[in-house]
Amino acid sequence: MATGTVNNKLKIINSFLRDHIAELLLGIIFILLYLPAIFWMWDRWFARDSYYSHGILIPFVTGYLIWQKREELTQLKPEKSPLGIVLIVFGLIIHLLSSILRVYFSSGFSMIIVLFGLIAHFYGIRILKKISFPIAFLFFMIPLPMVIITNISFQMKLFAATIAKTVLNGIGLPAVQEGSILKMRHAYVIVDDICSGLRSLISLTALGTIFAYWMKSGIFKKILLFLSTIPIAIITNVCRIVFLSFISEVWGPQYAVGFIHDFSGFMVFGLAFILLFGVAKLIE
């Protein structure tokens, strides 16, 4: 009985391989073609103080979102679309130029365009529409170029420091701002790039996109929820700066580093998640 069950499973696997041999071969070629971009993303995901530490989770989220639609997808008959070849060629041209110039961001961008094209070519537009959001969600795994990250982070940390200074003065802790440094009577706090709030903003926009996708409301409310991630990320990051400034001024700067500094980062993201969930419920 057990042998028969194993043989049946092997027959199913062999049948699947025969029916999808072209897709499997193209999948292998696709991965080999984009290995440099994949390695680049991997390095950025796991770099110290990475802004994209969530990147490794994005493909799994995409897989789960597609798996949720498995019943709908099985009811659709695959139909090849000529649009698929157009997208594949367009994406490969971008990849070729990116490889020559060694611009890995646009190479990663082209990878998703080619993926759209492959799905359209083998399975058709109807199936592509069903899984277009999960595939598009893969954009959140592609790190922005560091020059863009640096510029945005610089502006955000100055903005966060300005708001934090106003709050500190409002609660009775006199503070003076010099660039991204907050000087108080007995201590000072440096708002560096990691404390700019950009990391929270990037992660929160990905999370907000999922919330908006699952929310059973119109497109306007979905966009409103997504846009709410920006003020939420800024507000929660300012709370963290004020919290660390308060500890530095009252108990001493030595108590605002190490565990407290890192733990406050987790607490801020937890607070941001709660606020985002609350806004979603309020809008819905």
Describe the secondary structure blueprint for this structure.
Elements: H1 2-19, H2 21-33, H3 35-45, H4 58-68, H5 70-74, H6 83-101, H7 104-123, H8 125-130, H9 132-136, H10 146-170, E1 176-178, E2 181-183, E3 188-190, H11 198-214, H12 219-250, H13 259-283
Antiparallel strand pairs: 1-2, 2-3
**Could you tell me the radius of gyration in angstroms?**
24 Å
Low-confidence stretches: none
Helix and strand pattern? HHHHHHHHHHEEEHHH
Q: How many structural domains can be distinguished in the coordinates?
A: 2
Give the strand tally: 3
Please summarize the sheet with the most strands.
3 strands, antiparallel
Mean pLDDT, nearest integer?
85
Shape: elongated
**Oligomeric status:** single chain
Q: Beta-strand level of the residues, as a percent range?
A: under 5%
The DSSP helix count reads 13
Give a concise summary.
By secondary structure, this protein is mainly α. Helix content is 73%, strand content 3%.
Would you write up a description of this structure?
The chain is mainly α. The protein folds into two domains: 34-142, no CATH class; 147-283, no CATH class. 73% of the residues lie in helices and 3% in strands. The chain has helices at 2-19, 21-33, 35-45, 58-68, 70-74, 83-101, 104-123, 125-130, 132-136, 146-170, 198-214, 219-250, 259-283, and strands spanning 176-178, 181-183, 188-190. A three-stranded antiparallel sheet has the order 1-2-3, covered by helices on one side. A hairpin with a 2-residue loop joins strand 1 (176-178) and strand 2. It is elongated. The termini are far apart. The relative contact order is 0.08.
